[in-house]
Every structure is written in C-alpha cells, then in structure tokens.
Amino acid sequence: MTIHIGAAPGDIAETVLMPGDPLRAEWAAKTFLDNAQCVNRVRGMLGFTGTWKGHPVTIHGSGMGMPSLSIYANELIRDYGVKTLIRIGSCGAMQEHVAIRDVILAMTASSLSTPSRGIFRELNFAPCANYGLLRAAADAAQARGVSVHVGGIYSSDVFYDERPDLNEMMIRHGILGVEMEAAELYNLAARYGVRALAVLTVSDHLLTHEALPSADRESSFGDMVEIALTAAFA
Ligand SMILES: O=P(O)(O)O[C@H]1O[C@H](CO)[C@@H](O)[C@H]1O
Ligand SMILES: O=c1cc[nH]c(=O)[nH]1
C-alpha cells in the first residue's frame, strides 16, 4: 500500500491503462477485462486488475492534470513495479482534419510547464512516446478501421483556457489536440526507464465547438481501450 493506492503488493499488474476519469477505469475494466477486481478506492480513485487475453492488466484512474497523474504514476512505477503505462484519455481536437471520436496517438507532448520543470531547470526536455507502443497502437488502430492520427499534442494545465493566441500557435504548428496529462507521463517514463503512450479520443473540437456529453466520455471510447490493450501486448 502507498499513501494514495490501497492495493496490496502484487495486486497491480506490470501493465497499467490510465484514464483521467476513475469511472472510465471502472467501465473499461468491467467491459474489457476478465475477472476484474477493484484494487484501489482511496480518495475515489478507482483501480481494477483483471486479465485481457490471459495477460494481467490494471486499469487505474490518474485524475485530471499533471500533478495528479504524477502522484499515481510515481507510486505505480516506484512502489508497484509497473513497466508499461498507457493513458486512455479524452482530448480536444485542434486541426480541421481531426474529427470528434477520432483517435490520436501522442508521439510528443508540448507544454508550457510540467511538474518536472524544477528538475529539468533550463533544459527543454522533449517528452515522447515509447516507439514500440506507438507503432503497435498505430497498427492496431488501422487494423480496426479506426480513424487515427499520429503526431504532437499539447498537455495543458488548464481546461478553461484564456490564451487564444497560444491555441492559434499550436494549431499553426500542427498540434493535433489538447489534453492535460501526457507530457508528465512521458517525463516520468523517461526518468524511470519504463514504457508510456497516450491514446486519446477526441471529445471536443476547438475549431467547430462540438462537444460530447460526460456520459460518452465515461463509457463509450472502446476503440482506444482495445488499441491500448493490443499495443501493450504486441
Ligand atoms: O478524459 P481524461 O482522461 O480525464 O482527459 C481529459 O479530460 C480532462 C478534462 O475534462 C483532463 O483530464 C483531460 O486530459
Ligand atoms: O483537456 C481537454 C480535454 C478535452 N477537451 C479539451 O478541450 N481539453
């Protein structure tokens, strides 16, 4: 047990899928895993462990934002020995050719800052996905016929953004979408020598202003879960 995770040693698998939303964790575990058991409910941050095609998998919420994700990812890696972390998140699209419900695979994650800023100091470290996971996820998405985009995303500290100029800059530089966790997940994966990837489903569109309701964000993004599971064990 850790301060934030109540699971017993051995109750967390080496492969963890991390949605921001703990209720998406519950839905995904009960929908896609066999024999899913709840292994954490500290602070309501639900985690479940089961198997997928015989492979042990944990699906655990990260909460919203990089500081929250950092707490769970640190404890999962350092205390529970997790080796592969795949974020399964929602995001806002920033390009016209990206549509609602499309899947984005985050090759890199730009940011204004991350919780690792104090460690990197003057270094502009470039957080990037694990290439093997990224390639396997792209293959899995194409095999499923999912509309998938691979490229850079923006990890923001705010959902309610007051910088239209910044979004314009991101859009002009080809950033595919915005979310709030991937950059720090990639920083931590690099620091501890583990694999990480962010697989995102477009829930909002910054250009068209379309937006899916919260129920859809919680329990309808099945393609990204299956892409993440397939990539983890490719
Ligand atoms: O749907 P999740 O995985 O929580 O991801 C996105 O949704 C939240 C904001 O609504 C942020 O956590 C953002 O990164
Ligand atoms: O962080 C997020 C997530 C979904 N949609 C957004 O616009 N931002």
TrEMBL record:
What reaction is this protein's catalytic activity?
a purine 2'-deoxy-D-ribonucleoside + phosphate = a purine nucleobase + 2-deoxy-alpha-D-ribose 1-phosphate; a purine D-ribonucleoside + phosphate = a purine nucleobase + alpha-D-ribose 1-phosphate; uridine + phosphate = alpha-D-ribose 1-phosphate + uracil
Q: Which Pfam families match?
A: PNP_UDP_1
The residue ranges of the Nucleoside phosphorylase domain are: 16-211
- Positions with a binding annotation for a purine D-ribonucleoside: 4, 179-181, 203-204
Q: Enumerate the UniProt keywords alphabetically.
A: Glycosyltransferase, Transferase
- InterPro entries from the UniProt entry: DeoD-type, Nucleoside_phosphorylase_CS, Nucleoside_phosphorylase_d, Nucleoside_phosphorylase_sf
Top-level taxon: Bacteria
**What is the stated purpose of this protein?**
Catalyzes the reversible phosphorolytic breakdown of the N-glycosidic bond in the beta-(deoxy)ribonucleoside molecules, with the formation of the corresponding free purine bases and pentose-1-phosphate.
The record's listing under NCBIfam families reads:
deoD, PRK05819.1
- What protein does this entry describe? Purine nucleoside phosphorylase DeoD-type
Taxonomic source organism: Thetidibacter halocola
Query: Gene encoding this polypeptide?
Result: deoD
